[in-house]
Specification:
heterodimer; A: 159 residues; alpha+beta; OB fold (Dihydrolipoamide Acetyltransferase, E2P); five-stranded mixed barrel; 3 helices; 25% helix; disordered C terminus; B: 749 residues; Four Helix Bundle (Hemerythrin (Met), subunit A); five-stranded antiparallel sheet; four-stranded antiparallel sheet; 25 helices
Amino acid sequence: MTGRPGGPPDVDRKRLKFLVLGCGIVATMGGLLIVGMSRPGGVAYYLSVSEFLAEPDQAKVGFRINGKVDPGSIVRAASGQDVAFVVTDGAASLPVRYHGVVPDTFVDDADVVVEGRLGADGTFEAHTLLAKCPSKYEAAIEEGQPMPDHSDLVPGATN
Amino acid sequence: MLRDLTNAIGHWALFLGLLGAAWSVVAALLGARIHGRGLQRSAERAVLATSGLIAVATGCLVAGFLADDFRLDYVYHYSSTSQPLPYKIGALWGGQAGSLLLWVLILSVMACVMVGTNQRKNRALMPWATAVVGATITFFLVLLNFIEPPFLTSVARPDGVGLNPQLKNYWMMIHPPCLYLGYVGFTIPFAFGISALVTRRTGDIWFRTTRRWTVFAWFFLGTGVLLGAYWAYIELGWGGYWAWDPVENASLMPWLTGTAFLHSVMIQERKGMLKVWNALLVILTFSLSIFGTFLTRSGIISSVHSFATSDIGPAFGVFLALVFFGSLVLLVSRLDNLRSEHRLESVLSRESSFLFNNLILVGMAATVLLLTTFPMFSELATGRKVTMGPPIFNLVNIPWALLLLALVGIGPLIAWRKASRENLLRSFVAPGLVAVWVLLLLLILDARAYLASAGALLGALARLDVYTAFQQFKTFYPAITFALGAFVLATVAIEFWRGVRVRVANYSESVMLALGRLVWRNKRRYGGYIVHVGVVLVFFGVAASGAYQIEAVRELAPGEPLIVDDYLLRYDGYRLVAEDDYFGAEATLSVHDGASGERLGTVLTEQRYHPNLMFPELRETFQHVKALGEAGSPQYAEGVAGLYRLVTLLERQAGREVKTPSTEVGIHSSLSPLAASRFAEDVYVMPLAIDPATGRANFRVFVNPMVNFLWLGGLVFVLGAHLAVLPDARERRRLDAAMALEERSVAVA
C-alpha cells in the first residue's frame, strides 16, 4: 500500500510539485475571472424597466433592461437596421432606439433585453437587442375584431 | 371519436407507465437486497413494459400532429395546417411536454438495451443500475403526468398557431434529439457508477462495461453542440455561431466533464488511480446533463434560445439536488473502497498530463457554470441580478483552451510513470520544431501588426495593467492556435507513421494495408487520434473566423455591385414569393473574384414574413395569392406586393404588427482546395430590408475565413468517434478477463 501518510521526503516533494502546478492553474483561472469581472463591458445589472427608472445613476453604463415590446410601438426604418420602440414591464415604460441587426424574434409583445445607455433626450440608446418570441398571435384571436374589406389591394381576390 | 380514443390512450399510457416505472425501482431495490432473481426479473420486465407504454403515448401525440387535432393544446400551439409534414413531426419537440416526452422515450429505449444486453452479465451491478434508471424515468413521468401533461384538450379550433419560424429549419429539427441522446445517454454510465459505489464493486468494471455508452452519449452531445452552433450560424444571421448563451453553455458543460471522464478512466484502467475522481466525474456529468435539460426547459435564466417558460423549475431543482448531493454522500461513504493503487511519480508523465487536462476541462466547465448561473446567485445574495457577457467567457476560457490544445498533443505521446529524456526527445522534437516554424512564419507574414501589439503589450505590462495586456495578447491567439494545432497534427502523424512502419517491417504489408489494419485493430486508440484531429480543425475554424471576420453593410439597387474583401458581389435581382406559410422577397446575388472578375457562384437570400393567419382577411388573401403562384399566374408578383400593402394597412388598424419576420441567410462557401487562399471561407449575406416595389435592398455581408473548418472538424470528429465506439475484439477480451477476475475475487471474499 502506498496510501500511507508520511512517505519518504522525495514523495512529499513530488506531491508539492503537483500541488503548486495544480493550484497555479486554478489560481490563474480565478485571477482571469476577477480581472474580467472588474472591467466594464462584460458585467451588467439586469433590471426591469421600473427598477431602471428608480436607479439613481441612470447615465452609468452596464445596464441590461428586460421587458416586453409595447404592441404597436415598433417603428422600423427602411434601412432594416434601425428600430425605435417602447419597452414596458406593465408598470413603467421606456422608449428605446437601437441600431444594428434586428433579430427575427423581435415582434410585438416579444420579451426583449436591451443593453446600452440612457441618451440625453430620455431615450435609451441600445447597442444590443435580444428578443424572445412571445406566445404568438393569441391576442389577435381574443380581440376578434371585425375587419373591413381590402380585397381591392390584391388583384382578383374574391371573398 | 377516434381522436378522442387516441388522446385517452396516450394519457392513460403515461399514467400506467408511471406505475410501471415506480414498480421497477421498488422491485429492483428489493431484488438487490434479498438477491432475488425473480424480483430483479420483475423490475427489468417493468422497465420493458414502461418503455412500451411511453412509446405508445409518443405515438398518440404524433398521431395528433398528423391528424391536425387542434383540440389538443400542444398540437394547437406548435403545429398548423400549413406546416409541412416534417415540421409537424418535428413539432413534437417544439415545446415543453413533447421535449420531456422525447427525453424519457430515449431513456426508456436505452434502458431496454441495457436490460437486454445484461441478461447474463453484470448481475451484481444490474439491480441498482436498474433502480437508478427506473427512478430517472419515474421522475420524468411524474412531470408528464402531473405538471406538464401533453394530452390536455380544449375546444375544437380550426387551425393552430404553428411552430416558431426560427425553429423551422432542418438542423433545428435534428439538433434537440441529438442533444437529448447525449444528455440521456450519460444516465447509463451514471447508473452503473452509483451501483458500483453502493455494492462496493469499485474496480474498473462499471465504466468499462459502459464505455461505449459513454462514448455514445459524449458523441451525440458533442454533435448536438456543433449542430446548435451551425443552426445559429445559418439561422440567426449575425454571422457568428457561438454567443455563450445559457442554453449553449448548458450543453457544453456536460460535454467538457464527459470529455474529462473519457480520458481519466484510462488512468484507472491502466494504473488503478483516480478512482474517486472518476466517480465524481460521472456524477458531475450526469448532474450537468440534468441541469442542462433544466436550464433549457425551465427558462430560469433568460436566454435568446430558450423557447420555454414553465413550472417545472422547482421539481427539477429537487431532483437535481437529490441526484447531486445524494451521490456525493454515497461517494464520501465509500472513500475507503476507492484508495488509489499507485501514486503519481512525475510531473512529466502521461498520468499527470491527463490529470492536467482533466483539471482544465473541469475548470472550464466550472467557470462556464459560475458565469452562467451568476445572475441567479447574485440575485439571491444581493437582490440584484448581475449578468456576465461573452467577453468574460472568452477572456477566461481561451487561454485555457489553448493550454488544453497543447496537452492534446502531449498526452498520447508522453511515457507512463516518468518520461525519460529519450522519450521526450524522440516524441516532441519534431512536432515542436513544426510548431515553432508555423509560429514564426505567421508572425513574419504579418510582422507589423504583431510588432505593434507586442509593443502595446509590453507597455501595458510595465504599467501593471493586466487587462490591457491581455487584450493585446489576443492578437497572438490565432498564430498560437495554428502553431499548437500544427504541433498536435504532427504528433498524430508520428503516431500513425510509427504504427505503420512497425507493421510494414514485421508483417511485410503494403503501407495502405498496414494503415488500415493498424486503425482497425486499435479502434479505440486511433479513433481517439482522429477525434483529436477533428478538435484541431475546430480550433482552426474558431480562431480564424473569430479574428479575421470582415463585415460590410450597403444599400443596393438591383444591378449594383459591392466590393467586400477580395470579392465582388452583384445584386442581380429579386423575386416576390408566397409559399408554405410565408410571403416575402428573394434576392439573388452573384459572387465574383474581386481581381479577375471570375464568377464564383450565386447566393440566394430571403426576407420572409409569416402573416398572422388569425386575421380572416389576411388568411384568405394569403391563400389566394399562394394559389396564384401555384397556377403560375402573371398576377402573382403583383399579388404578393398587395400582401405587403395589406399587412401595412392592417397593422395601422390593429395598432400592432400582424406578421413575424424571418430572414434566410445566403451563404457561398469555397470548398475547393484549388483556391487555397479562400479554402473553407464563407461569403455570408443577409438582407436587412428589401423594398417590394423597387427591389432596393440593404444587405449585410460577412466574409468568414476558414469557418468551414469548424464543420469539417465536426465531420472528422464524427468519423473518429464512430471508429472508437465500434466493437473491438481486443477491448472485449480485456473486459471479459477483467469481469472473470472480479467474479472470482468476489467468490473468494
